[in-house]
Task: inverse folding
């Protein structure tokens, strides 16, 4: 298996393009990751593709500038797509003995990962716009101010909204025709929002977190990264693992028969260079 993220044609300059490698090793699974596909030699960077794909146009306040995501999400999503393709190709090779060329790129991965937002345009001709922290089709589904800070309230169906209205002490809202269905709440969110905020302002965020959680309503505070790690640890997810004495975030997969192993720490620059070059010379 070979994975690279050079520009299209970059590996061929070294005699290591797919056709070159497959001629020697027909069973090779060869994954090429580029910025914009095999016919474009443009350099690809996460920030650039967040902008070009439309992702940044969806991030930020409606009346403010677009923002990039806080991490290199396009890089991560493209890597996951590449890994999925490699696994499919390895399975095909197990069955047939044939290798193949797997290709993905940052732009295609970004467009695929925009899911309902790209579908809104492709299927409906609707160009999505920034909505801040609001959801396109669910309400309430956003951070909401309480007596001393914000709390995420994520109501995904009518039953949850009825429980929310009861927990807030305004059960009549669930029977109000303006709010009785998700479609109605979406259409009348500007009328509903101040009614919810007025009740939430009466107690601090942590007290509402307890009350709403007890009512089985998805909600939670906005944590920083430290608090996120601490939450995962408190839930028994063991988020931190030591690899070669270096602490890192645990792989999120759990496999019952073949548990994930964390054998090696991330390598230093050229740590395995001599070993890899020797392997290349032998092969």
Result:
């Amino acid at each position: 298996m070979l994975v690279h993220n050079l520009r299209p044609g970059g590996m061929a300059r070294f005699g290591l393009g797919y056709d070159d490698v497959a001629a020697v090793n027909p069973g090779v699974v060869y994954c090429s990751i580029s910025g914009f596909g095999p016919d474009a030699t443009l350099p690809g960077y996460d920030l650039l593709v967040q902008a070009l794909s439309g992702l940044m146009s969806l991030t930020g306040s409606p009346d403010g500038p677009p923002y990039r995501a806080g991490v290199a999400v396009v890089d991560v999503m493209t890597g996951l797509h590449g890994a999925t393709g490699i696994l499919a190709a390895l399975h095909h090779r197990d069955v047939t003995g044939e290798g193949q060329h797997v290709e993905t790129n940052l732009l295609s991965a970004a467009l695929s990962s925009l899911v309902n937002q790209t579908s809104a345009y492709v299927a409906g001709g609707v160009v999505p716009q920034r909505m801040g922290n609001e959801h396109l089709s669910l309400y309430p589904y956003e951070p909401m101010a309480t007596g001393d800070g914000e709390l995420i309230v994520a109501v995904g169906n009518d039953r949850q909204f009825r429980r929310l209205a009861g927990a807030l002490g305004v059960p009549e809202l669930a029977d109000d025709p303006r709010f009785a269905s998700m479609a109605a709440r979406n259409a009348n969110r500007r009328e509903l929002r101040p009614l919810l905020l007025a009740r939430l302002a009466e107690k601090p965020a942590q007290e509402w977190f307890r009350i709403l959680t007890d009512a089985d309503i998805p909600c939670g505070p906005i944590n920083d990264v430290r608090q996120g790690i601490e939450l995962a640890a408190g839930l028994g997810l063991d988020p931190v693992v030591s690899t070669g004495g270096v602490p890192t975030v645990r792989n999120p997969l759990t496999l019952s028969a073949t548990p994930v192993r964390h054998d090696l720490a991330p390598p230093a620059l050229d740590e395995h260079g001599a070993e890899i070059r020797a392997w290349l010379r032998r092969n």
Q: What stands out?
A: The first helix runs from residue 18 to 24. Residues 272 and 278 are 10 Å apart (CA to CA).
